[in-house]
Design a protein that fits this description.
256 residues, alpha/beta, Metallo-beta-lactamase, Chain A, 7-stranded mixed beta sheet, 14 strands, 22% helix, globular
Amino acid sequence: MPLRVTLLGTGTSHGVPTIACDCPVCTSPDPRNRRHRTAAYLELPGGAVLIDTPPELRLQALTFGLRRVDAVLLTHTHADHIAGLDDLRRFNELAGGSIPVYGHREAMADIRARWHYIFDPTTQGGGGKPDLTLCPVEGPFPLLGETVIPIPARHGRLLVYGYRIRGFAYLTDCSELPPSSRELLRGLEVLVLGAIRRRPHETHFNLEQALAVVADVRPLQTFFTHLTHELDYETTNRELPPEVALAYDGLVINCS
């Protein structure tokens, strides 16, 4: 069975449209220029995996018909990637149990500290709280009958993880990708990679840097995500090589 990926959001921490902005992209009638905060949903033979839990998670789940989440892969703990964590409560109800959350050790410790009420058995239930099992990982691990390979990278000084399953890899907020991680990206069918804008950025690949990564690791197809309102969908795609394109919210990718 192929791996089916739906990109739930493809925007930066500000989203697009950006608040109080009248630029051509923010006012564009093209729905592909409307970008919720970045996340992906992977449908596998053994279940469904969510990459990150952005602030719009509830809206994304309703828009794209998400009915189950069997596991979560966290790239890092910036607010635009974890602020929807509480919306996993509904998926607990649907699954009838705890949902495992995977990420690097520092990220798991940060989740436990910042979302302390989830893990405190004395916290009053009230409207409910997510039932999550935090799973620190440092190397490849089994999940739902697949092997997940974490891809370590740097987001400025912050350690972040991308993830590879089969011939698909997802790597969003990133400004440095060491040679050892690039080796883990060889032989890909599809790469989803962060490319924030044309201008240089302190903690993200810009368009030129992301294209250099693509030229190095040479996936068959690449989609750029985590996009600002400086990148118009149609205009930018006309500038890109045929095997590279901007992603958009709701893009469905099928991998073998």
